[in-house]
Amino acid sequence: MTASRAAFLAGIVDGARPLHQRLLDAKARRVRVVIANALDGAPEVATARRLAAARPVELLAGLALAMRELGATRGLIALAAPAAEAQHALAGRLTDAARGVGAAGVPSSGIELVELADAAAGNDEAELVADLGDRGEPDAVVLGAVALAALGAGGPALMVPVTIAGAVLRPGVRVVPVGMSVEDVIDAAGGVTVGPAWLALGGGPLAGRPLDRDTPIELRTRALFVTAGDSDLARRTRLPLADRLRQSLSACEACAACTDVCPPALRGAGLAPHLILRALGGATDQPVLGALACTGCALCDLACPVGLAPHALVLAAARALRDRAADVDRELPSGTPHPLRAERRLSTRVAALRLGLGAPHGVGVGVDARESPPPPPWDPAPVEPARISVPLLQWTGVPARPVVAPGMYVARGSRLAEPDAGTLSLPVHAPFAGFVGEVVPGRTGFVTLHRT
Ligand code: SF4
Ligand code: SF4
Q1: CATH code of the domain occupying 3-153
Q2: The dihedral sign for the CA sequence 238, 242, 248, 251
Q3: What does pTM read for this prediction?
Q4: Ligand number with the minimum distance to the CA of 263
Q5: Which one is the CATH code of 158-238+349-383: 3.20.20.30, 3.20.20.370, 3.40.1700.10, 3.10.20.600?
């Protein structure tokens, strides 16, 4: 069976897109290099890093399957420094395969491990390709390590590795069932260490979005970061967009510190957040087209000396452009990377310190008085919630159609919902055996499952 067929049947998602679709697109482009993205790119998020160390056979087997379907001659696994643990685990399996021993499915040649400097937002695909430089190729495809490991594991996608960090008793990377609620996942990590008004940010502390406590874990969920309800982080994320826009337009000093750290700006992608702010404030008639290159990483907010949120403005400008469909099809301006790109990029450690995370260090002042937190460890303890609600749409496309009814018993891995023929959809499976509760079809639909 081809990798794309296996990915479709398993219902694997990579980012917001079905993995099989990404593979078929890459096949049409005749790519020759497959890059496994095992970077996390955010403070306190260690999902891909820990997965690569804990599940090397699955990752290597998934990469090999993808390479075989695409006819790719090279596979790269991109790891963020320090990556000794993952390097050791992956290199050991590759050596075993070269000696003709070890697990089935692990390729014996054609795969390189590449350790890149730790950089906040470094997991963005365009950043990764730029970082690989000559080691990458123009005809390469970047696929997520988590999705590739799911492909290499075989069988349906039922569980997903998630970093649970911040104000929880036992921070860690845990493999949890799809459909488990945010609150149950946090309880499984020992519960919160702050008051009852805690807030969970999906994606991590840097650019994470606030989640309701009953939000289900999806196949694309990578991190939950818990913060106190009255923390600066919580206040910042809860500030209404209109207030953020008003503050930014009135108080911006046009210092360009935001542009100095903006990853697309440093790559020469034609985005300058400080100019977009000036244009939106009417100070210039600079075009705001570069806003379309914004990835929403929020590093510009960290850099702003007066505490503004330029990223909300840039994203709002990009949304307005897309809504008007204006200029969207035009090629974005691109130039050469900034000569000081390497020096200006923020590491996840510095980003953590600027977010006020980390333990007091005792000496010095300002950020130097704190130590950035260590990445959360892999936690193999099983997570077995009594009840889950599995969403029918976890990707960009159309929802799957439920094929179960309330009261039915379903086995682990059996289908809860099927894709309709000819639609961009995926099957949805039962992460554990149990009885079906509620069945709600549609874009916001779900199937509730009670463990037996
Ligand atoms: S969020 Fe800010 S730093 Fe990140 S890409 Fe957008 S403008 Fe640049
Ligand atoms: S860093 Fe802040 S003050 Fe400076 S240009 Fe950007 S938004 Fe304005």
Answers
A1: 3.40.50.11540
A2: negative
A3: 0.91
A4: 1
A5: 3.10.20.600
